Amino acid sequence: MSFGDEAGVEYQTSRGRDWPSVRQFNVFLANRMGALLELVRKFESTDVRVVSLTVVETADCAIIRLVPSDYERGYEVLTAAKYPFTESDLIVVKLPDDDRPLLTITKALLSAEINICYMYPLLTGVGPLGNTAIAVHVDDFESAAAALEGNGFTLFTESDLRE
């Protein structure tokens, strides 16, 4: 049996994906007064900005969908504070300069038969021009990115969040 490079097996890691993406943390918090404040303070006491945040309340806990300005540093903040969390990918799309930006984005995804699981706006501008953008979680990231880029939309990556 052969291992390593000589094995001749092609592989790709999730970080080597073929579409522009942004990582989101899904932080699980107890449904109690001040829990969200404690989480936000963990980030505010560092150089990491919270670029996007949304709260999904369930009976047992709150799920905080959070995008930091720096993925690696955000990971460090959450693990040091011992928060339970998972990660997921998002496509961050610049809102086009037209009268119906959400309509044009959702139509482009529908025409490619891409299911939108959820979407929400970013709190801060993205990229060097501070563009307005939305975060979109879809069921097929590679096809969604291709469909959006094929229709002329600008997609942002994690490096655009640091600017």
What is the CA-atom radius of gyration, in angstroms?
Answer: 18 Å
DSSP E strands, number: 7
Structural class: alpha+beta
Distance between the termini: 47 Å
Order of helices and strands: EHEEHEHEEHEH
Low-confidence stretches: none
From the spread of the alpha carbons, the general shape counts as globular
Mean pLDDT: 87
Q: Indicate the proportion of strand residues.
A: 25-35%
* Percent helix range: 25-40%
Major β-sheet annotation: 7 strands, antiparallel
Number of discrete helical segments: 5
List the defining traits of the structure above.
globular, alpha+beta, single chain, seven-stranded antiparallel β-sheet
Provide the fold topology.
Elements (H helix, E strand, L loop, with lengths): L21 E9 L4 H10 L5 E8 L3 E8 L2 H10 L4 E10 L6 H11 L4 E6 L11 E6 L2 H10 L4 E2 L1 H4 L2
Protein model, in words:
- There is one protein chain.
- It is built from five helices and seven strands, in the order E-H-E-E-H-E-H-E-E-H-E-H.
- Strands 1, 2, 3, 4, 5, 6 and 7 form a seven-stranded antiparallel beta sheet that branches.
- With 163 residues, the protein is an alpha+beta fold.
- It starts with 21 loop residues before the first strand and ends with a helix.
- It is globular and about 40 Å long.
- Strand 2 and strand 3 form a beta hairpin.
- Helix content is 28%, strand content 30%.
In short:
This protein is an alpha+beta fold.
